[in-house]
Amino acid sequence: MDKDEQTLVEHLTDLRKVLLRSLIFFIFCFAVCLVSINRLIPLLSNQHELVMLGPLDVIKMYTGIAGSISLGLSLPFIAYQVWLFVKPALTEKESRLSIMFFPAILFSFIGGLCFGFFIIFPTIYQFLMLLGESHFSMMITAREYFSFLLMSTIPFGFLFEVPLLLLFLTAIGIVTPAMLSSMRKYAYVIMAVVSALITPPDLFSQILVLIPLIGLYEIGVLLSRARFKKLNAVKGTSPSNEL
Fold this sequence. Notes:
Elements: H1 3-35, H2 37-45, H3 55-86, H4 92-133, H5 142-159, H6 162-171, H7 177-182, H8 184-197, H9 203-235
Helix pairs in contact: 1-3, 3-5, 4-5, 6-9, 8-9
């Protein structure tokens, strides 16, 4: 076996270890969530009256909720495993910066989930319920409720990472504040599409989601500017290409 083949085998072996560790951790979280499901359901349903249409819906709902929560709990561990795998290919600066960002990534993800759960979801849910109750007798199935809940919370966990992503890309020299400012109109269009995809097809819900997304992008631009100034100050040059 030559050197290139040996290196490929080593990479595949390391990747296999990453996948196995991530899968084992996910299964562990999934088992814990299933054991605790009777305590999780009242917290997530928030005293709303929900109905089931069949006995199999209970199993589908329990496994779906446990799987979604387990994925969220597993993401920091999986991200760390991926970082260990790609670490040899990173420069010393990229490796140091990326590990420093891990705590912020975790808290941003949790913050996004909380924002979706406590603000976005109840606001949109109450609006749609009031809109429906004005003409109909509303009966919400547990499956529809929890699908809507997950759709309104989990995407915000990832979207709250946008400012950190822009900050990290600035720190390693891939983007600049000037680039982010010039791409602002395109970013707004993308965020409008995202808000339309993760919300019901009504203007109120889409605007309610779009405004925080725009705010997250602008926070990322501000963080990028601050980091860019600091980098130029360390180099002893003026940030001539900053807006």
